[in-house]
Write a structure and sequence with these properties.
about 950 residues; mainly beta; Jelly Rolls; TIM Barrel; Trefoil (Acidic Fibroblast Growth Factor, subunit A); 5 domains; 8-stranded parallel beta barrel; 8-stranded antiparallel beta sheet; 11 helices; about 15% helix; globular; disordered N terminus
Amino acid sequence: MKNFSRNYRKTFRCKSALLFSFFTLSCGAPLLHAQTETAADRITAQPVGDRIVPYRLSEKGVVRPVEWGLDTAWESDANIRTGSAYMGSVDIVRVSFRPTHPVVDGDLNPDQKKYIQNRLRLAKLAGPNVKLMVNSDHPKIDNSYKSNAANWAEMMDLHVRYFQEGGFEVVSVAPFNEPDYSYTGQGTKEDFYNIAVELRKNPRYKNIRISGGNTLNSDEALPWYNFLKDQLDEGNTHQLAGSFDGFAGFFEAVRRDGKHATADEMHNVMEAMVGLEYGLQTGIWWGPAEYTRGEFCKTSRGERLGYAEHRLNWTAASVYRAPDGRVQAFGGTSERQAATTTYRFISQERDVFFDGHGPQREYVMELPGGKVGSYQEGQTNAEGVVNITWGEDIQPVIDGRYVLVNRKTGRVIEIANGETQQGANVKTGRYSNAKEYQQWYVKPVSTRIGGDFSYYYITSYTTGMSFDIWNWSLEEGGNIAMYGVGNGTNQQWVMEYAEDGWFRIRSRYSALYLEEVEGNVQQEGRDDSYNQQWRPVPAPAAKIEIKTLIAPAGLVAESQTASVLLKWNKQTDATVYTVLRAESAGGDYEIIARNVTGTSFIDHKIPVGKTCYYTVKATDDCLNSSPRSQEVAVAVSGARALVAHYDLDENLKDATENLKHGASVKAPTFTSGKIGNAVLFDGETDFVQLPGNIAGYRNLTVSAWMRWREDGWLKVFDFGNGGEDEYMYLACDRATKGFRFVMKDDGVEQKMETTLPSVSGSWLHLAVTIGDEEIRIYVNGELAVSSRDITIRPVDFNPALNYIGRSHAISDPLFSGVVDDFRIYNYELSGEDIKTVSQGGTVGITRPQISEDELVLGPLPAQDKLQVWYTSTESSGRVAFKIYNMQGVELMARDMTMPAGGITLDVSGFPSGLYVLRVVDGNCMAARKFTVKH
């Protein structure tokens, strides 16, 4: 094909755009589209990631019964109280015996008894029904116990008896703790074995598990366990050194033996996730169990929907559905051995929100660590949780400057008297936009904060100081004051969403909630009162007014070839709008877009042939919302058309009426293309992410111009749902001069291949057509290969994660080269059509253009009346006339049977200026400019 000049190409494309755009003025951009927002505007291209965690919300997950507990080895009231609050319920508490003094006259030393009483007190803080696990605490070991199994067993038994007499059930005992590391010299494997033999003689242990070997290094756990296991009921390990293989393999080995699998000193949610995946039945947190750990304990009692791990990096991630239906994603690292890892959580069936981000299919969590293979070198013990939600009420994303409004009183949080010194009290007051000390930055903490990073700082706009629980209080009534920002957990907060833009603000340290009490801000236990709910209103705010808005009016829907156009009336008291969709009339509505600033929106995520129901809500600057508007029903027309067209000249926009715009992680690089400009892919970070539902058809055509820059296996495009089960891709290998087209669904992969002509870095036009019976690959307009053996069709799996220049397989390289003029048709183009496209022609016109002869306007310029004459021998019978101003706002609409003498449109109320008349007759359309002059 001969090269078009730049000007000719632009003229050609403008004329094409006139045919398949909503309407166009001359060769300019579509005016309404410039004002209309679309689902594609909300695509956030996600980086490739090191691992993926695919999950399906419709599927029954894996259920693994487990009990979770807390530890008293670190003698901390805060750990027990906070852990119990975040976990919701505690099953088991680890307490210890102390071999520090000999048994005298059949009893323990007073120091040992005092130690027991304190451990009983801590256990009671965890709840009245917790069970106890007992193992060794060994600051020193009395000589009377060394290599003396009988004495050691007697000392242990006295501790167990006192714990039982304290009102607790003891379910497990372990003679040694971390014997592979103990500097006090608890004893050898033989000593452990002999102590277990002694315990077996005691009827007290008939229903108490004997546990071992409790090693620090998970690679040492199995050797100790194997030596001891004929005397053990329970296998136990820690994870402070060793290999991932050793850690996971240990639980598998214990369960194969039919024994109880335990990790009684967990330091990160990673250990809980990995352990549970490979057989863990009891897990106990050493140190604090804060938000992420507490949420995992509650949610993991439900179903595991997805799981992934990176063994070399010592990290893991998972998705769980709690018994109450909540869905959460978790990520964690080894406390001492992890390397930085990114995980992509992929919702394979539907759009969701991740902590308010969305609606989207994927979310990337980065878990920071140290060097690969290093030990205690840069690790942060990072862990986090993300809430996965959908429906009609979704939390807003929190990251910015706000006024924090109390739901009950309407008062806002402020610094008392605007003081600037540390220790200034935090209270509430009536809002004034002149008081900048009522404004707060609420921002996520760094992922390297240390441990759990699922929190927020709340810092003053005027002083930069932070909310601080004064004097590290754990008590209800603890006061909130201002203090310089640090890494203290008493300055970090959970934003728990309640409803309708309201949040509860919970302390990381105490697990208590901010509450307004007689004008003061302090922490209290949760009571579900409105005093504990706060709305973050973006600042600065002109005024604070909590109210209900009126519902938007005038909602209408128009069916397009691969999308639905929604329009409604502007509302004077609204700032933005939320668009909702349901699958049945009056059904369960879900947000498909929010913060829509205009009064029109294109939804291109509705499948062809399916009727959906839409409504709109209004929202103002104070996050007040309205009831739903009236409901409208519509289905995508499904007419054969070019449903997405990326000319890739200056942006990633789709030129069709469907506005299925693409996105990229960084700003795309444009270079000289086959026709004008094209996108340059560097093979390292560049790719284009396309919207969902661009390829979910039975028949399909994908075409593009491309040129390689490097040899190797490269994906031109890859459409799928994440993971390795559902995809279709076209790959090229310049080294072997081959193309491969592959489709996979339901575990079955089918493919076809062809060879390339001599390329030498030249441009190739590629096209894949998928028909009812046959799939074909065309190169430079000529048929290269065809197959009737591929029976899978895109509609079978409806790909939602669609890429140009990127693969769904993590190990595949990114595309290196140039891509131009990428097109997707919802039908099989013929060989003649492919040749036409490869030679610069146009096929797949959405709506044939009404000719100049068929549509006449006059007189021009119009004064008060515009006469319209329209004649067509192939008219559908009903004709729609609409007038728009130059900003794309609809000013008039008429739908009628065309009278023989034409129609007269009253434009007397229009200011003098330029307007557009759009005429639609069945599948034909036209857009004409006209001028009004009074």
